[in-house]
Amino acid sequence: MRTDDGDRFATHDQLKYLYAESQDQVDTRLLKNFDWDSDLNLEDVNDYSKKLGKIEDADSVSKSDYELLTDIGVLRRDRRSSSKERKLTEGGLLFFGKFMSIMDRFPRFQLDYTRYARDGDTDWVDRVSAGDMNYPEMNVYSFYNLVLPKITSNINDKYVQDEDLTRGSYVADLRSAAKEALVNCLMHAYYDGTIAIQIEDRPSYWEFTNPGDMRVSRESFLRGQKSEVRNSEIATLFRRIGISEKRASGGPRILRAASRNHLMEPEIEIDATNKITKIRIWKIDIRTKIDDEMILDPTEKFIIDYAIQKSEFSFSQMFKDMNNRFGSNSTVRKRLNHLLDKKVLVSEGNGKSTVYKLEKTSEQEQVDRIMRLKNMEENL
Fold it and tell me: How far apart are the first and last CA of the chain?
């Protein structure tokens, strides 16, 4: 493996990852010495059958477990063998398997959801964890069914609609974004990795962490240009019951939720060294975050809201739009300079050509640019 100071022998885990990433379909591999009737949680299979029946046709409910599992691709024939025996796929085991059966193939399999009362807390108030005594038979399907209602119910619509912003879509948009992020996390995870799938649910944001780096760029993901699913079997099982779509719709929905409701931009961190992907979806806008960090007077609140709306602005235009509501030119400029000192705003240019805008990281600037492009595409 190439490192900063030369070549190093690959570890066993690195070789496994390279081999897995060389294949388009990771989780369709067939398992030896696993039996569907003893290694799968048939209660989950039955629940899935009922949901499938509502979407496709009622006949699927009347099928036997074996027929259903064959029909949806969980059981497949090994074409390299003359035997017509059908074997369990790795994706089928992850999706429907009993916890200890999954651990026999994926010894580091771990799914975790934790909710916190405050952003800075380390002690959780609610948790769903695979293998825990409360969830002894956790698999991908049961984890999704348990966690989705918890995620989507923990959205406080605390915003008050004002004359400039319309927040009627806030809760619905965030629920859609959270669902997409959860499904994305489970479909794209590298289950042979060394870390757990982790979902943090805090008052201001959700953070979804999964092993495996993203197979497409940030821009491609957020704009929905291309989708390369790591676990096609899991993706298909979700899609059959209407939970996911084949086209790359997850990123645009996450982006749309932030853009339509003027929320802080979603953050995507791809750690190529440790093979980890993190997606943070904010539930709050920039003004709310700044409100939590410092005390703002009415003039500063106006300036920040103005910066959110205008992207960049000149002092003269902003002062004109204030319409003498916040005092003299020197008073307003003093509050503007205070926000510059606190690095809430940054300035560009000199003299009368100076413009101001919100301070953002390079990653936030990139996402902001993508959001503008996506809005232009939708308007066109």
Answer: 46
Per residue of the chain (380 residues), what is the pLDDT tens digit?
776 777 888 777 777 767 666 666 668 889 999 999 999 999 999 999 999 988 876 566 678 999 999 999 999 988 877 777 899 999 999 999 999 999 999 999 999 999 999 988 999 999 999 988 889 889 999 999 999 999 988 887 654 444 444 455 888 889 989 999 999 999 989 998 888 999 999 999 999 999 987 766 666 676 666 667 888 999 999 999 988 766 667 788 888 888 788 788 888 888 877 788 999 999 988 788 888 888 899 999 999 989 888 878 999 999 999 988 998 999 999 999 999 999 889 999 988 889 998 887 666 666 667 666 666 666 67
Q: Which two tokens stand for residue 35?
A: 């039996």
Q: Domain 288-379 belongs to what architecture?
A: Orthogonal Bundle (1.10)
**Three-state SS for 98?**
coil
Phi, psi of 176 (to 5 degrees): -65, -45
Give ranges for CATH 3.30.565.60 in the chain: 107-285
Q: Please state, in angstroms and as integers, the Cα–Cα distance from residue 38 to each residue in 75, 96, 99, 100, 106, following that order.
A: 14, 11, 12, 11, 17
Q: What counts of helices (H) and strands (E) characterise the chain?
A: 17, 12
Cα separation of 84 and 264, whole Å? 54
Q: Which two tokens stand for residue 197?
A: 């799938």
Q: Give start-end residues of each CATH 1.10.10.10 domain in the chain.
A: 288-379
Residue of 234, 178, 170 lying closest to 202 (CA atoms): 178
Among the listed residues 149, 125, 285, the one whose alpha carbon sits nearest the alpha carbon of residue 204: 285
Q: pTM, whole model, 2 decimals?
A: 0.81
For strand 111-115 and strand 197-201, is the pairing parallel, antiparallel, or unpaired? parallel
Nearest-angstrom CA–CA distance, 321 and 234 = 53
Q: Does domain 107-285 have CATH number 3.40.50.1100?
A: no
Contact 345, 357 (CB under 8 A): yes
Q: What's the CA gap between 69 and 88, in Å, rounded?
A: 9
